[in-house]
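Entry 14. Ran structure prediction on the chain below.
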Amino acid sequence: MKISSDSVAALVAKVLVRRGVKRVFALCGGHIMPLWMRLDAEGIAIVDVRDERAAVHMAQAHAELTGELGVALVTAGPGVTNSITGIANANVSRAPVLILSGTSPRPQENRGGLQDMDQSQLVRPLTRYARTVREPTLALAELDEAIACALGEGGVPGPAFIDFPVDTLRAPFPQALQLEEQMAAKPRCMALPDPDQVAAAVDILWNARRVLVISGRGARRAGPELVALLDRLGAVYLDTGESRGLVPDDHPAVVSAMRGAVMGDADVVLTVGRKLDFQLGFGSPAVFNGATFVRISDAAAEVRDNRRGAVAIVADVAATLRALVEAAGNTAPKVDPAWADKLREGHRSRAVKLRQSMASAPAGADGRMHPNTLLAALQDAVGRDAVVITDGGDFLSFGRVGLSADAMLDPGPFGCIGVGVPYGIAASLEYPDRPVVVATGDGAFGFNAIEIDTAVRHKAPVLIVVANNGAWQIEVHDQQETHGKVVGTRLQYADHAMMARAFGMHAERVEHEADLAPAIARALANRPALLDVVVTTDAVSSDAKSGLAWVPDLQPLAAWDAAERAFREG
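Output, structure tokens:
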């Protein structure tokens, strides 16, 4: 059945074009075919994937890297249920993603129709907005509201879900109801900071001796303003996975190698668009040693979770950072330069030692190369201009410190391993002229390995590097240390390169250090490409040592857990 240009499906496609959407990540199905064909008719590229979870992951990566709305289109029933992991990850990551779907025709609803289920009810706890639109004339208003909620207009950004019975998608939408104010893209309207709150924040920050700044999601569009504040205040800085690359690694404020020391030593902590989740010890006084908090975000939920700040500003982040610097005027900050210099020197010393140790990392007793050997060669080959995605459990711990780039993504606060391949595909389609590298463990790779077919079909110029140690290694280590027995955590040293070649991808298996650099060079020149690099199981990651794998009761890390217990006991 041909879908007319005045249908609801056509209207949805036209709105997406008006909102700047250039590609949609999708997997086909009869319940969404009207929308599928109208997206194509309106010139929106469809990146057809092999699993709906990957479609949502790709939409999230696009959103996080560009700041734009990411869009996924999934079919009814199993299409929606397959997408739920991606929706949950976007929810925890606060990523602006719109998920579109279809459902049974209205005359077949609740009668046992094909793939008939209440999809909006299923995803509602994981979304900012979830609605089934049955009445054709309400489609525009509902779509406009779903997009606004996804972008965080008036709240926290995150996934929004909207679906339509397939007969609604085919139904006409009156031209008279295509109101311009609901069709057109809207500039984001953000509140300016209150001057009294800015003055109170300046009073705390400029009178503190040991100021630590931590950034997150909300700082992504405020990089220059963040750097200007760090320069003016003389504070030290920690990035997180949500904002990695926002401040250059060589900036003097960066002290990431001294993370544990500075979190316990700061007297004032400024969070910029960052929740105080498990990665930051929930902001506990046991971890931050009684520091005063100042909190800034464009979303209220990012200033009141776990710890209230002495000052909390909910406003445009870039405008707020500029206002802080302007309000301080010529006032000299009181940050102790000796304290900051000691941290900087400690960071530099550890960073140099890390680079040296990575370059000379010994092979394991099994003769296989160390993961750091792989990471050092990869970093040398791609440089800082790359987009780097790190993925995995154990291997992520190595990659988090071993790789650096101007744009980086990882599994995020949900710990959703398996995102690497779909993230890399979306990133390489958006930035085809930059090196886009996925560094993933073999366990994480397996979740979405089939998407290498998507990369080949769409000529996505991504390099996927699999660190293959034949195990869920962080769990293997925990089982050995804690239980004295390894159960169900061994994998094969499978030949992932052979699988990639079966889909037409340039792929090589690398087992010796001498072969590594030439293989990386060939792979970069022949993207999409995959390198299956065999690494030792003898290397123990920092996450494996920290207690993260066995999930302590009060805090995610063993040292923090002990500190929390001592703090609570007085």
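Residues 50 and 450 are 7 Å apart (CA to CA). Will compare against last week's run tomorrow.
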